[in-house]
Amino acid sequence: MQADVKLTAEQVMEARHSVRKYDPNAEIPREELNEILRLAATAPSSWNLQHWRFIVVTDRAKKEQLLPIAYGQQQVVDAYATIIVLGDLEADKSARPVYDDALAKGYVTEQVRETLINQIEETYRNNPQIGRDEAIRNASLAAMQLMLAAKAKGYDTCPMLGFDSNALIQALNIPPRYIPVMMITVGKASVPARPTARFGLDQLVIENSF
């Protein structure tokens, strides 16, 4: 598939498969990679707090450093980029910047701004688990959108949960505010993804109630 081929949303969803073998010589122009990241960042998030951050690893030596952390999965080295998707455990701290900007642009009123900021701060203060839950949930939405954006531009991806989270935090100096949610390799496949079988809707969909 060429990067300039335009696919419909349906075609992108059906064409995306997890690729584990990449062409190590294939590169992604930085402007295209940035556009993939920009599209990923348009994902929805609770209160629009945008809980995701992306560490983009393209340096060969740094990718080699990730190899043992990812339990020897060669794709982290051979893919053009290995992207670590982080979730913000303290996304409530983004409430004021988000809603100050929204107020300045006329998207919300002063009253709505204050109501939402108070709601966010109270929720995070009273529910210790909410920070972790929201970090993982919302960063995962951005991760899926990143993979679809990459496929739309002709690139392949693989979401990875098989890595040593503590070692990754140490290796990349990740602050305690952020939690690694997943790695995503991005590049050009050297071997097509293997086919997968999917459940039919009769096994997946429950109408109205169990």
UniProtKB/TrEMBL annotation:
Entry's family note: Belongs to the nitroreductase family.
One Gene Ontology term of the molecular function aspect: oxidoreductase activity
Enzyme class, first EC level, given as a word: oxidoreductase
Oxidoreductase listed as a keyword: yes
Coiled coil: none
EC nos: 1.-.-.-
Keyword annotations of the record: Oxidoreductase
Pfam family, one: Nitroreductase
Protein name as catalogued: NAD(P)H nitroreductase
Keyword match Oxidoreductase: yes
Segments forming domain Nitroreductase: 14-188
Domain of life: Bacteria
